[in-house]
Each structure stands twice: as structure tokens, then as C-alpha cells.
Amino acid sequence: MHLRVVQRILGLLLMLYSVAMIPPIAVSVYYGDGQETAFIEALAITFVAGLVAWLPARNDRRELRLRDGFLVAAVFWLGLGSFGATPLLLADVPAMSATDAFFEAVSGLTTTGATVLTGLDDLPRSILYYRAQLHWLGGMGIIVLAVAILPMLGVGGMQLYRAETPGPMKDSKLTPRITETAKALWLIYLGLSVACTLAYYYGGMSLFDAVCHAFATLGTGGFSTHDASIAWFESPLIEAIAIVFMFLAGANFSLHFVAWRGRSPRSYLQDPEFRTYFLILLVLTLTGAAYLTLTGHYATLGESGRHSAFHFVSFMTSTGFVAAGFDQWPGALPLTLILVSFIGGCAGSTGGGMKVVRWLLLYNQGVREVKRLVHPAAEIPVRLGDSVVPQRVIEAVWGFCVVYIILFGVMLLILVGSGVDQVTAFSALATSINNMGPGLGKVVADFTQVNDLAKWVCIFAMLFGRLEVFTLLVLFSPTFWRS
Questions:
Q1: What Rg, from alpha-carbon coordinates, does the chain have?
Q2: pTM of the model
Q3: What is the per-residue pLDDT across 9-34, written as a single tens digit (0 to 9) for each?
């Protein structure tokens, strides 16, 4: 374990993150909301902390090993919540406790979108912008960004990339060098963010709202500048724009890159995970639209389809935008929305959840076991498209799912034991670990009615979900710390 190398990288990353305070300072000065001092102080604190960590280890240029990469990713995300919460603690408005500030910052950086704030329409513009910026930075991963623009780190970036990027297929690279891969992903991310901003703006949003909602959309975060979320705009056009970009954000960004480079959408059609992702959303949307129409919840099939499509895309991609009172929908539809967040987006997307590819592999494994019952001696491989999936990948997927379920069960018991009712506890934990945002019960709109212990449990659930469980869990293994 090269701890001094880890210390040097963490210091550099903190100094890099301190730069993220500059745009909110500019927003505060432009709108005159009086919060620029909080962001200036937060910038100074974060930069000095990074400098103090970096200086003693600045000359250690040893190669970063895989275990070091996991440690950097885990410690940085744990520490980033603290420094991300600093301007929220220092700001005059809103007045937040340490727990609430940390919750809000982690929720933003992990692109969860669960909030402890109310009265968003009246909050300072700089605070609203900062929350959206947290989503945008967390969306593709601040560490991948650092690898892209800090080649002077002098370390093996692939170790950071493997620890940070979501999904089971982490070793495929779009370009020969990992730095170029990270740059390619961020260029696609930036391009889609600009396109989404322009679409929202010309769709009827103000420029400020367009930027903030574009950040939340591409980061699949869901923080809005209004308490009513997307419903505030009462615009089918804005909802349609959100559906398109939420769907794109929930797809594998590698596919976007390949499609852009080849000037052809063929890569989407050839990818089995993307086809499954599209099919699941199509079936859910049609089913939801039919049910809402048959129960008379909405007057027309068109209106039912519009709300069904928006919310199923929003919840499955873990964005968490809301355009209607989904908790008042009839039958099992509200619970279905919460459950689809467990599926999540595609591997390599900004979406949360367990990822479509894992569910697809589990399904194919189940089909293989059924065939084996009929043909016990047959050698039946698990395939993903035309490729045979190595048994090691299947075992890793099973291991991930088992640990995911166990963690969920343990944290659910803690939430219920802290006094949270069962409906609220289940949905609050589901929305946290799947990085989704809104829930049911007392967390439909916000987490203000949840006690502090439950908030801390949800904070760790967000981090476990964002780093896909094992990146954090591995730190608790004695094997990890042995030389």
C-alpha cells in the first residue's frame, strides 16, 4: 500500500475541487444574493486542506496500484462530502445543521437528489446553482475528471478509472490511453449538457433554470430550483425534453462515443444492454399508461402516456424529477416506480441502481439453469449478445447482488429501529442506495421529517450505491490492508 502516493493524489484532488467554488461565487455576485463570502471561505478551506495533504508527499512518484486506486476513490468520496458541505454550513441562507449540510452535499455529489431543503423557490441563486453543480460533477465522477485533466499526476490512471466507473465491465477502453478515454467521456458529457441546456432554454425555461436542470438531468440527480420540480413549469414540451436527455444519460456513455465517432446509431442497436434498457422502459410506459387510463386517473390516453413515460424514465434512470403527484397514482404504480430504481441505468452511465446489464446477466443465468434441468450434462454458456460471458463475471454479479441485498436489509432494520415507519424506511433506503431521490411516505418530497440517525444511514447508502458497494466494502477487509 503506497499511502504517501494516495495522500499526494488526495491533496491534488482537493485542490482541484476547490476550483469548483468559483462558479457559485460568480453567480452570487451576479445576482447579489450575499452568499459569496461563504463560497470564498469554503474555497480557501478546501484548497489549504489539499495543499497540506499534498506538500509532504509531493515528491513521491511511485506507480499507483489497484488497491491504492480503491483507497483514493473511497476516501475522496467520503471526504468530499465534508468539503462539499462547507459552503452550505457557512451560508447565511439556508441555516443548516452539520448533518443536514453533509446529507445535502453527499446527495448532490452521488447524484441522489434527496433533499432536506424546502422553499427552494426563495433560496439564494448561488445555493441553487451549487446544488446543481454538485450533480454535474458527481455525474461522471470527479475522479475521472481529474484523470482526464491532470495527466501530471504521474500515476496509473486505469486504477482510478476501474475503482470509480460504474458497472461490471470496467476494463474496456475506448482509446488506447486511459487519459484519452476519460477526456472522450467528458467531452460527450459536456456536449450533451450544452445541448440539454439549449433545449430547456428554447423550451421555455430561463437561462438559470435551464443550466441547473441540465446539470441535474445529465447527472441523473434531480435537484430542481423549484419545490414542485419539473411540474412547476406545467409544460409538456419541457417534460419531453427531460425524457430524451434522461434516457440518454441513463445509457452507456461509451455507446454515445462510438455512435458519435462512427456517425451511426448502429452501436445502440447492437448492444444487448441498451436494447434491454429500451424494452423495459417501453413496456413499463405502455403498462403504466394503460393502467392510468383504465382507472380514470387521467382523462385521456395521451395524458396518461405522457406522465407514465416521464416518471418511469425519471425513476429508472435514477434522475428523480417529478411532474405529477405520483404517490397518488392508483394501485401498485407508486411502488413500481420505486422498484424500477433497483434496475437503474446502463453500466457506464450516470444512472444509479444495480444496472441493466447485471439484471440481464442474472436473467440469462436463470435461463441457463432451467435448460440444465432438462439437459444436465450439457455445456451451456451464458451469453451477452454474441459474446460468451466468463464465469468470473457471473460470480461477481451474483456476489454484488447478494451483498447489495444484505446491506439493504441491515440498513432497513436500522431505519425502522430508529423510529421511521416501514413504508418511509423502505422507500427512503431504496431511493438512497439507488441514488434516485423521491420516495413514498414521509419522503415523497424531502427528508425533513427523517431523524438524524436515519439520515446518516441514508448517507452511507448513497455512498455505497454511488461506488457500487465493493469500492467501500473492500476497505473493511483485513486482506485489503495486508502488504
A1: 22
A2: 0.91
A3: 889 889 989 999 999 999 999 999 99
